[in-house]
Amino acid sequence: SDKSLIVSFGEMLIDFVPTVSGVSLAEAPGFLKAPGGAPANVAIAVSRLGGKASFVGKLGDDEFGHMLADILKQNGVSGDGILFDQGARTALAFVTLRADGEREFMFYRNPSADMLLTPEELNLDLIRSLSSTMLVYPQRLHLDLFDASVDMVDGRESEAKVFHYGSISLIVEPCRSTHLKAMEVAKESGALLSYDPNLRLPLWPSADEARKQILSIWDKADIIKVSDVELEFLTGSNKIDDETAMKLWRPNLTLLLITLGEKGSMYYTKYFHGSVDAFHVNTVDTTGAGDSFVGALLCKIVEDPTILENESKLREVLKFANACGAITTTKKGAIPALPTEAEVLALING
Ligand code: ADP
Questions:
Q1: Which family does it belong to (predicted)?
Q2: What angle do CA 143, 165, 303 make, to 5 degrees?
Q3: CA 1 – ligand 1 centroid, Å
Q4: Binding site membership of 339 for ligand 1 (Cβ less than 6 Å)
Q5: Which of 140, 143, 203, 336 has a Cα at 20 to 30 A from 237?
């Protein structure tokens, strides 16, 4: 099949990263141009690992927009879902690297092209094609596995499709409605919905508004990944434990993941929960670690959705995803640091 199994919806932009840490934007001696945007990073992470991914989003019809579209293409991501806005410019982010290693962002979004994708412009065929081969809701998995009428894909018995979202433009129209429409069509088509809030607090009018909006689309997702910072923000509790995590649990969720940087990741399903340790690596830049983790996880779910019901399989997959995240921190920038499967296996097998 030449159809993408993972469609990632949202923005792609350019991060301008100062060449030195601990200075203000105005004092930076220079900047590196780093392509980014979490949803685009996820699509490229999938592709680098050998999966089939599409990116759906809007870019400016300008030098930066075409550069980003080329990067997607060079990385094997299908560009059938890319649109160019004739008026607005490509989104830009200016990063401040604080002395403590944390990053702050200032965005050019005035508005930028990504915010202007309308529901009418969505490539619905692309999103609907997520259902073209078959299934899958994991709740139905047992039934379908034994249903002779189920299509066989590449000789395998089951295969999931995933729609991944988490645009920073969730807040603004028309992108907000487009987000909701794409989610709805993907869900109707039988895809699993994967959500990463990618919280960038300064973009929201208020913290309350951010919390409200993020949680309002929470219930629609099958798979959710949050960082420790997002866990604290959404629950109001700074204790990272089961009790706090359960505040984010919803009956329709299949998998909730909390990533903890060098402390690894935690997982919750209806059936089991636990944590998987991180790998020790030489970290130079953590940008994109979470996107790399998500890309790896989605790749594995698409190959074998039964990992969602089998704890030992899931733990293997999270070890793989943790390794992907770890490798991504060993090089500057997100996209250049996203690993191939061979690199991941090399780290896992020491
Ligand atoms: P996010 O980028 O969304 O904040 P994390 O920083 O938690 O996400 O990274 C995702 C995963 O990548 C972590 O669960 C972990 O396995 C791995 N990772 C991130 N930072 C490091 C690090 N410094 N050392 C080793 N692994 C890391």
A1: Belongs to the carbohydrate kinase PfkB family.
A2: 40
A3: 33
A4: no
A5: 203
Check residue 143 and give its pLDDT. Answer: 33
- From atom 1 of ligand 1, which residue's Cα is the shortest distance away? 290
Q: What tokens appear for 25 in the block? A: 């934007």
Q: Whose CA is nearest to atom 19 of ligand 1?
A: 261
**26 CA → ligand 1 middle, Å:** 29
- What is the pTM (predicted TM-score) of this model? 0.91
**Taking a C-beta distance cutoff of 8 angstroms, is the pair 276, 265 a contact?**
yes
Residue having the nearest C-alpha atom to atom 24 of ligand 1: 262
Residue ranges covered by each domain of the chain: 6-143+151-348
Q: Does ligand 1 come within 6 angstroms of the Cβ of 322?
A: yes
Domain 6-143+151-348 class? alpha beta
Structure tokens at 11: 């923005």
282 CA distance to ligand 1 middle (Å): 12
**Res 133: pLDDT:** 41
β-bridge pairing 192-195 and 13-18: unpaired
ipTM above 0.85, yes or no: yes
3-state secondary structure 137-167: CHHHHHHHHCCCCCCCECCECCCCCEEEECC
Q: Which amino acid is at 133?
A: T
Query: By alpha-carbon position, which residue is closest to atom 11 of ligand 1?
Result: 325
Tell me if 293 CB under 6 Å of ligand 1: yes
Task: Give the Cα separation of 179 and 281 in Å (integer).
Answer: 36
8 A C-beta contact, residue 293 and residue 124: no
Please write the tens of the pLDDT for every residue from 42-58: 999 999 999 999 999 99
Tell me the per-residue pLDDT of 139-189, one tens digit each, with 9 for 90 and over: 333 333 333 333 333 333 456 789 999 888 888 899 999 999 999 999 988
Beta carbons within 10 angstroms of residue 63's beta carbon: 10
Q: Is the CB of 61 under 6 A from ligand 1?
A: no
Ligand 1 centre from 153 Cα, in Å? 33
φ/ψ of residue 274, rounded to 5: 175, -165
